[in-house]
Amino acid sequence: LTRIMANNKSIVIDYDKINYKEEINEHIHKIPEYTREYVRDLFPIAQWIHKYNLTWLIADLIAGITVGIVVVPQSMGYAKIAQLPPQYGLYSSFVGVCIYCFFATSKDITIGPTAVMSLLIGQTITHLTSSNISYTGPEIASALALFGGIIAVFIGLVRLGIVVDFIPNPAIAGFMTGSAITISIGQWPNLFGIKSVNTQDSAYLVFGHFFKALPETKVDVAFGLIGLLWLYGVRFGAGVLTRRYPKYERTFFFLNIMRNGILVIFGTLIAYLINIGKSTSPISILKTVPAGFQAMGAPKVEIPLLQAIAPSLPSVVLILILEHVAIAKSFGRINDYRINPNQEIIALGVANVIGSFFGAYPNTGSFSRTAIKARSGVRTPIAGIFSGCVVVLALYALTPAFYYIPSAVLAAVIIHAVSDLVSGPKFVKQLWHINPLELFTFVAAVIITFFTTVEYGIYSSVGLSIVILLIRIARPRYSVLGRIPINANEKNTSETQYLYVPETHPSLGRLVEPVSRGVLVFRFDEALTYPNSSFVADRIIEQVRERTRRGKPAAANKGDRPWNDTSNAKDDELSLSKPRLAAVVIDFATVNNIDSTGIQTLLDVQGALNKYADRNVQWHFANINSPFIRNALLTGGFGTQTVSQPGEILPVVPASRDGPKRDNGIEEVNGERDVEEAIADEDQKHNIHEEHRLSNDSQLTALPGFPVDKYPFFHWNLEEAVRTASAAAVSINQED
């Protein structure tokens, strides 16, 4: 083909016919191969564990211990947000980081308690316990982890991870930002030692009640505010020093990571010294944290409990999957590797199912700890096991020291951690410039989460995203194309070449000239399927009626006109200067799919335009890049277009034997059409006219050296389609 094109010749090319039976048989024969790949993908660790070496071990050990130091105080703080005793945060941290490595496709991500999930679990437990349910908070949390994990495993096994692709990043950022703001406001009373404020209320209520209760501030505020000052000061200082002394970047990084641990250690020491000799503590402290895994056992599974948690399960599963996959994809892009979303969902589900037997509540990927793990130089998911060892050490050896951890210090750690989840002004500004509708989704999710709960924030952001997606599919952008000559002033060119752009192009519109009289060129920026087919039909007919005239004037007698004909004599007189429609060209470059409703819509429009123009209007298709789309168009009869008034190819209501016969252009057998017979019939009709077409110089208007499609109405590029349609229009107009 390249050699022929280089010799400035044309070649007639035809796609091979699509044989769906062969396609199906081929896939059936590959089932054993698919099965082997499926089983192998379930355990990604088997593909790299045999290459594990000492270099990887050292890097994973450093990263794992670093994350473990961070996760211990964070997990206890998140457990308090979830309305659970602090040890349940440690249980969740241990199981997540240890189990994940066996199923992981991401080396960076760290599973464990997160701020958003903890807030959702806390709101669910508060709601259920307030309704006098006979189950405790830990029992509710473990049941949510068990059934949420089972659902996640099912989604991953049946490869439904594609559902996460329907939720855009702004929607995820919206409810995460709203949740982060809600969590921060909810920690203000703990930061100031105020106990009269219910932190499980909506954020706006907590905000108002907090300022009302400010006179109740205790000495805890010293721990909280100084802790925040320390955390942000170290973070800012490490950044400044890293830029000034880049060769010590790794040293400053680890000093920066240690800021949480240092704050907790010194805060605990000061709280211990304050409480020496006192029967009651003057500040709020963590108090007793049981050593070891005290909650191990089968989670309670009872029908009343399942009925109680069922309304919250969808939101739990959504957060599990969305937050985790979004973080995994992000760090995969940053560190140049690809993750398998379905396998990640399986790993997440298995971690939660097994974690429920340790007393864990639902856990998912953590952004802050994943970032720390990546920056620490992690090499494989094995690093999670070392983080789990740090958690076990804390559970069995350090629990006596946890007694004196100030609640205000944990509040400072939480506020500092969730600040990374807030999308700032730069994000909002960029989103406004990219897509204002997505900004609306983001803002709506933040506001709804702030004034209600995180559950409603999730549902609203997901719902709005789906609505916007459906609107975009159902109402695609379209344009009538004009052309701009791009080599009209060149002396050595035999023919003028054109650039085809929308007639309403904001910057090039003044340079656009229309194509030949009686020819309209359309482009639709979406697949042609059942949600948008009627819209596409209306737009084509609307533009044709606006730019062309009838084939024959409307009846002078109003009684002879159709009931829905709103034209009058004046309209007919004004339209005399307009051309009569001869051809329609559709650029299929942006059409990646077409279904039976789309084909039927094109046939309906074809029949309507033939009646309007009182002639057989030619339909030319350019840039058909998919053989499946081409196959569908051939089935609809667009390859030869020998029928003036096409009928229904897939009638919703079967034709009555007593009624008028439908003219499909292809014979029907027992009222049904066979696709292969339809295409074969198209080939037969094509072959009859092929010799005449190739001998007619006015019809063979392909660009020199460019291939010609076997069918006269299919074209490999838009320029060829317009030239062919224009030549046909000239010929038809001369005949008229």
Automatic annotation (TrEMBL):
<feature type="transmembrane region" description="Helical">
    <location>
        <begin position="378"/>
        <end position="397"/>
    </location>
</feature>
<feature type="region of interest" description="Disordered">
    <location>
        <begin position="547"/>
        <end position="574"/>
    </location>
</feature>
<feature type="transmembrane region" description="Helical">
    <location>
        <begin position="140"/>
        <end position="158"/>
    </location>
</feature>
<feature type="domain" description="STAS">
    <location>
        <begin position="518"/>
        <end position="682"/>
    </location>
</feature>
<feature type="transmembrane region" description="Helical">
    <location>
        <begin position="111"/>
        <end position="128"/>
    </location>
</feature>
<dbReference type="InterPro" id="IPR002645">
    <property type="entry name" value="STAS_dom"/>
</dbReference>
<dbReference type="GO" id="GO:0016020">
    <property type="term" value="C:membrane"/>
</dbReference>
<feature type="transmembrane region" description="Helical">
    <location>
        <begin position="305"/>
        <end position="328"/>
    </location>
</feature>
<dbReference type="InterPro" id="IPR011547">
    <property type="entry name" value="SLC26A/SulP_dom"/>
</dbReference>
<feature type="transmembrane region" description="Helical">
    <location>
        <begin position="170"/>
        <end position="188"/>
    </location>
</feature>
<feature type="transmembrane region" description="Helical">
    <location>
        <begin position="54"/>
        <end position="76"/>
    </location>
</feature>
<keyword id="KW-0472">Membrane</keyword>
<dbReference type="Pfam" id="PF01740">
    <property type="entry name" value="STAS"/>
</dbReference>
<feature type="transmembrane region" description="Helical">
    <location>
        <begin position="403"/>
        <end position="422"/>
    </location>
</feature>
<feature type="transmembrane region" description="Helical">
    <location>
        <begin position="88"/>
        <end position="104"/>
    </location>
</feature>
<protein>
    <recommendedName>
        <fullName>STAS domain-containing protein</fullName>
    </recommendedName>
</protein>
<feature type="transmembrane region" description="Helical">
    <location>
        <begin position="221"/>
        <end position="241"/>
    </location>
</feature>
<dbReference type="Pfam" id="PF00916">
    <property type="entry name" value="Sulfate_transp"/>
</dbReference>
<dbReference type="GO" id="GO:0055085">
    <property type="term" value="P:transmembrane transport"/>
</dbReference>
<keyword id="KW-1133">Transmembrane helix</keyword>
<feature type="compositionally biased region" description="Basic and acidic residues">
    <location>
        <begin position="558"/>
        <end position="574"/>
    </location>
</feature>
<feature type="transmembrane region" description="Helical">
    <location>
        <begin position="434"/>
        <end position="451"/>
    </location>
</feature>
<feature type="transmembrane region" description="Helical">
    <location>
        <begin position="253"/>
        <end position="274"/>
    </location>
</feature>
<keyword id="KW-0812">Transmembrane</keyword>
<dbReference type="InterPro" id="IPR036513">
    <property type="entry name" value="STAS_dom_sf"/>
</dbReference>
<feature type="transmembrane region" description="Helical">
    <location>
        <begin position="457"/>
        <end position="474"/>
    </location>
</feature>
<dbReference type="InterPro" id="IPR001902">
    <property type="entry name" value="SLC26A/SulP_fam"/>
</dbReference>
